[in-house]
Amino acid sequence: MDWGLYRYFLAVAETGSLSGAARSLGVSQPTVGRQIQGLEEKLNARLFERAAHGYVLTATGRAVVELARSIELNAFAIERRVAGEDRSLAGKLCLSAPEGIANCWLMPKLAVFQSRHPEIELELIVGMSQQDLVRREADVALRIGNPGSEELVGRRLCKVSFGLYASESYRLRHGLPRSLDELVRHKIIESVEAVGHLAQARKLREVAGCAEVGFACNSILTQFRALKNGFGLLALPHYMAHGHPDLYRILPEAFSGSLDLWLLTHRDLKETTRVRALLDFLAAEVARDLTLLTGRQPCSIP
Q: Are residues 66 and 98 both part of a single domain?
């Protein structure tokens, strides 16, 4: 039996369709269909009912799915254990990070890291979704907020602070609020989809009440451009506003907050040489820029 067939089975079980499984695996839909057919033939059993709205597990499929997940987890455990024995400063190394951190703080740091270790092939996964370190979707993660699984190891590096900001162009057209009560007479930049769950977005939504939404977006970087162009007020991490003299921090005493920044890897990878090198490097760079990330001082360049 080719155990790789179970990857296709689990992808279809989780997404409910061949097309969804194909997207998650990065293959074509016909490829997924052939693999599912091949697995059913090898097992001499029907694992899915082909319904109008997608693929539904049969009773046999439901009995198999948990065993297949165990196979998958063991396969990833083998990969991690082998990777954990790797002592070279060469090869692929995948880091995941939130959009704001990646674009407004991390990139010049990674350029320095790569210059020091040119044989390490860096890959950066950017976004709000937490890449699964257990499944080796990433080797190292910078995460804001909850660190996730107990299988992960790492440390809380600092608290990333945020505040409320307005641009010069907004001030000239609308003025600035002098209290939280005045926010209802102003426009805000709203956060939707994944970024709508961020602490700063929830806090602004809570205190702004029925304030007019001047712009809504699911990208922190696009929101930042909207802020610069005067669409409204935006709750923003301080490190993103640094170096932009046309931005005003407003109501600093009334509107502030912070979230933990974590640096994580899977426990099986913590002694992998290239993983250890990146962990130590990022921890040192955060320590160098601690007052920037907490909102008190300019960023340093390595």
A: no
